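User: Could you go from structure to sequence for me? I need the amino acid at each position, not a summary. Structure tokens:
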């Protein structure tokens, strides 16, 4: 019988010891966790600098006009581009009013004419040379790209020429089309 008493007393002693260890650990965690018992001095003072505002970047296009100049004959105004059939040597010219908004103390942006896939694939598109010209506005920095600053903000006129390469041989590009809506003017903040 004494043997069974020792067996039951032993787990009770271990249980009390485990409970005591858990209580000490919980108390230590509360003290270390800063449970609101300590206070440190602090202060805070708001700036009195006032607000700072962001700048702006925007581009809008007016109504452009198209002309067609052939190898022979005078240039003619185009009223409906869907009626035009270009041949090697032809030059389509778009006179495009545009309005640039560029506001910011350090901002500069690149004005570009970007060509979509109908100009970069297909035999007609790859035989068309597209050139953007913007007189007295920004600085030309590459093919169809002008660097502009806030001093250039406002209305200006761009000229876009599309030349069908006069050296195009045989019937390359015949009975094909390019989508002129695949040309986009873009204004992008400069990063370098």
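Assistant: Here is the amino acid at each position, in order:
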């Amino acid at each position: 019988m004494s043997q069974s008493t020792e067996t039951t007393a032993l787990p009770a002693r271990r249980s009390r010891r485990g409970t005591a260890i858990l209580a000490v650990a919980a108390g230590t965690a509360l003290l270390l966790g800063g449970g609101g018992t300590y206070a440190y001095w602090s202060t805070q003072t708001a700036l009195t600098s006032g607000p700072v505002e962001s700048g702006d970047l925007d581009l809008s296009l007016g109504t452009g006009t198209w002309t067609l100049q052939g190898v022979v004959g005078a240039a003619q105004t185009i009223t409906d581009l869907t009626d035009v059939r270009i041949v090697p040597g032809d030059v389509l010219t778009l006179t495009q009013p545009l309005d640039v908004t560029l506001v910011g103390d350090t901002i500069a942006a690149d004005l570009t004419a970007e060509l979509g896939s109908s100009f970069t694939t297909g035999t007609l598109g790859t035989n068309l040379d597209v050139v953007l010209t913007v007189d007295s506005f920004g600085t030309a920095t590459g093919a169809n790209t002008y660097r502009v600053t806030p001093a250039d903000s406002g209305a200006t006129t761009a000229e876009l020429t599309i030349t069908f390469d006069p050296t195009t041989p045989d019937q390359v590009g015949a009975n094909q089309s390019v989508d002129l809506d695949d040309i986009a003017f873009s204004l992008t903040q400069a990063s370098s």
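One structural detail worth keeping in mind: Residues 2-32 form the longest helix (31 residues).
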